[in-house]
Amino acid sequence: SRSTFLRSFFTFCGCSPIVYLNKYRTKKAVELVCDSSMTKTEIAHYCGFYDLSHLEKNIKSFNHKN
């Protein structure tokens, strides 16, 4: 069931699936900014963010929490 999955996921990863996914997407975007010739806007779209400002907000949030 959904609740069993969410409970198991949280136990294994320490966060919800959406938080995990956002961290993963943000981490991948930061790697691409450092190692890619793509523009930041292209990277944002490639990693599934709505636009560059959405990506930048996630990066700030990710850096603030770590």
Q: What gap, in angstroms, lies between the N and C termini?
A: 32 Å
Q: State mean pLDDT (0 to 100 scale).
A: 90
Helical content, roughly?
Answer: over 70%
Low-confidence stretches: none
Question: Major sheet, described briefly?
Answer: none
Q: Find the structural class using helix and strand composition.
A: mainly alpha
Rg value? 14 Å
How many extended strands?
0
Number of helices: 4
N to C succession of SSEs = HHHH
Any key phrases for this structure?
elongated; mainly alpha; about 70 residues
Ordered list of secondary-structure elements with their pairings:
Elements: H1 2-13, H2 17-35, H3 40-46, H4 52-65
Helix pairs in contact: 2-4
Can you describe this structure in just a few lines?
The chain is mainly alpha-helical and 66 residues long.
Provide structural commentary.
This protein has 66 residues and is an all-alpha fold. Helix content is 79%, strand content 0%. The protein is built from four helices and no strands. α2 packs across α4 (52-65). The model has no long low-confidence stretch (mean pLDDT 90).
